Amino acid sequence: MDNGRDSLDFITIYCLRLLWDEIYANWEQIAVDAGLTVTEEQTLLAIGFARGSTVTDVAQILQRDKGTISKSVYSLECQGLVTRETGEDRRYSCFNLTEKGEKVRQEVAQKHLSGRGLAFAEGFLKLPEEERHAFTRTAFKLTRHVYGDDYIRFIQQTMNLPKDTSDLINQLLEETEK
């Protein structure tokens, strides 16, 4: 590395990889504690936010292939966490959480939000509000760059997001104009 920019980029990428390892390990532990795989947990969370969604919707939300999501939905269905309803077009089914599924979704979401025992989440929650917002803005800007505005709009339209979350996305869209 022959300049400061190379060093900055290397340290950023290395830190992100280390943080991802921590985030994934904790995500996996929360999923296992709930009797799920990481993909099943993410699918459960996505269906919880995008009620009445199809396999295609969930695959697009999670940026995963439809085959993986289909297997995950089937497993959640077998566990009594998700119900399948035939849509207007009989080739497609819509999925919703059962009462048991909603309870599991709330439990895992609370564990993610609390940050207890999760080094990354604990560290993030200890940052001053302005640093958390700056980090979120940067992560959002990168996500927007990688997946595009169509993905962001799809999430806003598909997901049953709380108003404050939708408002924050709109604010971030304004702040991160290309």
What attributes does this structure have?
178 residues; mainly alpha; Arc Repressor Mutant, subunit A; 2 domains; two-stranded antiparallel ribbon; 6% strand; globular
Describe this structure in words.
The structure is a single chain. This protein is 73% helix and 6% strand. By secondary structure, it is mainly alpha-helical. It has two domains: 4-120, Winged helix-like DNA-binding domain superfamily/Winged helix DNA-binding domain (Arc Repressor Mutant, subunit A); 127-178. It has a two-stranded antiparallel ribbon. The longest helix has 30 residues, at 4-33. The radius of gyration is 18 Å and the shape is globular. The mean pLDDT is 88.
Order of helices and strands: HHHHEEHHHH
Number of helices: 8
The fraction of residues in strands falls at 5-15%
Question: Low-confidence parts lasting 5 or more residues at pLDDT below 50?
Answer: none
- CATH level-3 fold name of the largest domain: Arc Repressor Mutant, subunit A
CATH secondary-structure class of the largest domain = Mainly Alpha
In total, how many domains does the architecture comprise? Answer: 2
Assign a percent range to the helix content.
over 70%
Mean pLDDT: 88
Q: How far apart lie the N and C ends?
A: 29 Å
In short:
The protein is mostly helical. Helix content is 73%, strand content 6%.
Helices and strands in order:
Elements: H1 4-33, H2 38-49, H3 55-62, H4 66-78, E1 82-86, E2 93-97, H5 99-114, H6 119-126, H7 129-158, H8 163-175
Antiparallel strand pairs: 1-2
